Amino acid sequence: xxxxxxxxxxxxxxxxxxxxxxxxxxxxxxxxxxxxxxxxxxxxxxxxxxxxxxxxxxxxxxxxxxxxxxxxxxxxxxxxxxxxxxxxxxxxxxxxxxxxxxxxxxxxxxxxxxxxxxxxxxxxxxxxxxxxxxxxxxxxxxxxxxxxxxxxxxxxxxxxxxxxxxxxxxxxxxxxxxxxxxxxxxxxxxxxxxxxxxxxxxxxxxxxxxxxxxxxxxxxxxxxxxxxxxxxxxxxxxxxxxxxxxxxxxxxxxxxxxxxxxxxxxxxxxxxxxxxxxxxxxxxxxxxxxxxxxxxxxxxxxxxxxxxxxxxxxxxxxxxxxxxxxxxxxxxxxxx
Length: 336
What we know:
This protein is α/β, with parallel strands linked by helices and 336 residues long.
């Protein structure tokens, strides 16, 4: 009996240890139960992110790095190396919240802490397309920065070795430039004030112009009405132009048929008729000019007829004569 109880106690202890280890694995995200969705992310460098590294959203763990794949020969659209592909497993709720502009960055818990991936779901309306991989943001590489800094320090050291006074010359040049700028500003202070005033006035005018343009472009404004009229004119032209073109084609066709029946002799006759018409027009102008001169002389009282028209005595006698003739027409045939 004692041996049986001892075996039961050992078995219970082992089972409790296994349950505790399993609970710890679940809490650490090493073990998950279904419902996960896969998101593919491309990187130029892992940023020290390894398999099973946590994936966080807003600092909260929502998944993990399921797989890290190396593709040495792969490059992006710009020709830069992009050899790392990561497959992330996230919860269904987070996956449904992802958009087409989803972002993934490499972060760490403190300067020397564990590296993980921070997920940004995006802000666009279109949902995330699982067929398109997300381009992750590569973390700054300390080795690359250190290498570039070392090259810069080497170049600076080489310059100082060749010209020990280069640094002092540089400082003196900066000081001289500062003094020059200060002198220019001091000497032309009034001009700069005037320039600032003019720029302020120009900005004010520009704001007024923008406000006026905005008012004119609003419904009911003149510019808006002009645009509407232009659109209506364009629409009318599109509607009427084919009919006008058709009528013009018919007219040109009729003219071609008429002109096709004319011979060279008919052309000479037409030219002769036109020449005669031109001559008659010139003569008509001359006659009209003479008539104008005659009427001017009559109005001025020149000549016998003009004097008769302008003399009131002659006018009264003519009037009396005409009145007598109307009353006694027989006097035209018989004289006392």
